[in-house]
Design goal:
The chain has 428 residues and is mainly alpha-helical. The chain is built from 19 helices and three strands. Strand 2 and strand 3 form a beta hairpin.
Length: 428
């Protein structure tokens, strides 16, 4: 696949020169961020401690992929997004076709991976199965093989690109296969080389899709969740592991393990449960007045409204907006979507008033709607949703790893201190 590889190869020296000549040579000793004791004890929230060029989250404009607002990318397919993450450019027709051809050639999942998955206990969580499937293929790492043979540091990125393509090409089949095996959905559905990456994933899940709407939703989902800066749990974990030169199979598996946590990748499940509880209580999509009373009663007993608020954003998440537009077009009469829509109409104003203006972000994030749309199309196994999130987010893991090695980034090793160190410092 010369075009993507050559595009990355041509960009790396320019970026390295920019870092050396324009940034480090002039600003190496300047302070980027002052860190408070509260931040030290608060999970490093808001501490600027690393560079991630693949994406950036603006508090008011939301996610940007390589400087492009996400709203301008919702009609793209995941392969285009991966190319963009790696190169800063959207591929032309020939570049896209070559990337897709490369993925088709690498798409076959080794039979031993299926044997490993089927050997697991029947009640194994699908995210555990996903992580184990990635690790089962680690023996095939091209990076590991070339490193053992004495690979030059300057070539780390290229072997990481090879591992990225091997993993990404197989992800749709692995993730869909886990769905069919874990939930006894029947035989595995063969990979179709005439389809794109997201289209294959949708088809191999086996969800009935007579109008092709589910495939459109899957493509959109994979685009919207592809990357989200470098400091979130899954991306940061993957990057830290890979910085130790653990190959990408280790790093991707580690990132997925972080994504599996309730405070990260499980959020859309909690939001969907909340929407379904409203539907069950009212046996329909409630009126605006009924919903206001329900939300207020929820807040009064000390509970939160799932899907509202974000650590970084201070406006409605553009990923929510993209899903909302999809829902308005294809699911406008669906009860779960109507509930999501009416929550959006009432919750922000309630939170603003209820919080006395102190709530930093009373607006919906992507999790407030994504699960409801998946549920509508028949993907009703809640604990599988994180696997789909993982399929998308691996695009970002891989792109960040490729460029980190291309720029010869060092091992990530922040300094930690003890409680006594903190106390002694401020006594002085």
């Amino acid at each position: 696949m010369p075009r993507l590889r050559e595009k990355i190869r041509s960009r790396i020296p320019k970026i390295r020169a920019k870092i050396k000549d324009e940034i480090l040579s002039k600003h190496a000793d300047k302070v980027v961020c002052n860190v408070t004791v509260k931040q030290v004890y608060g999970g490093m929230r808001g501490v600027i401690g690393l560079v991630c060029n693949s994406s950036y989250v603006d508090p008011y404009q939301g996610l940007h992929i390589r400087g492009i607002p996400l709203a301008e990318l919702t009609d793209r397919i995941p392969e285009e997004i991966f190319y963009l993450l790696c190169t800063g450019e959207i591929p032309g027709k020939q570049d896209l076709e070559r990337l897709q051809e490369e993925m088709h050639l690498r798409s076959e999942v080794p039979e031993y991976v299926w044997n490993v998955i089927r050997a697991l206990p029947k009640d194994t969580h699908p995210m555990t199965m996903f992580s184990i499937a990635i690790m089962a293929m680690e023996k095939n790492s091209i990076f590991k093989e070339k490193y053992a043979a004495g690979m030059r540091k300057a070539d780390y990125w290229e072997a990481t690109l090879d591992d990225s393509l091997e993993i990404l090409a197989k992800l749709p089949a692995i993730a869909a296969g886990i769905y069919r095996i874990r939930y006894s959905m029947g035989d595995l559905i063969p990979y179709d080389k005439s389809l794109d990456w997201g289209g294959n994933y949708a088809k191999m899940l086996g969800i009935p899709d007579p109008k092709g709407e589910f495939a459109k939703l899957v493509r959109l989902y994979l685009v919207l969740h592809c990357d989200h800066e470098g400091g979130n749990v899954s991306a940061f974990t993957s990057r830290v592991v890979n910085s130790a030169l653990s190959n990408l199979y280790y790093a991707v598996s580690a990132g997925l393990n972080g994504l599996a946590g309730p405070l990260h990748g499980l959020a859309n499940q909690e939001c969907l449960k909340f929407v379904l509880s409203i539907q069950e209580k009212f046996d329909k999509a409630p009126s605006k007045k009924e919903l206001i009373d329900f939300v207020l009663s929820t807040l009064k007993v000390g509970k939160v409204i799932p899907g509202y608020g974000h650590a970084v954003l201070r406006e409605t998440d553009p990923r929510f907006t993209a899903f909302y537009k999809f829902g308005d077009k294809y699911c406008s009469k669906e009860e779960t979507f109507l509930i999501v829509k009416r929550l959006f109409e009432v919750v922000p104003d309630i939170l603003k008033e209820y919080g006395g203006g102190k709530i930093a972000d009373p607006y919906p994030n992507v999790d407030a709607i994504s699960g409801s749309l998946l549920f509508k199309y028949g993907l009703t196994m809640f604990d599988y949703y994180t696997v789909m999130f993982g399929v998308s987010r691996v695009l970002g893991f891989c792109a960040q790893a490729i460029m980190a090695h291309g720029l010869q980034a060092p091992i990530i090793r922040p300094k930690s201190v003890t409680n006594e160190w903190i106390l002694d410092k401020f006594k002085k």
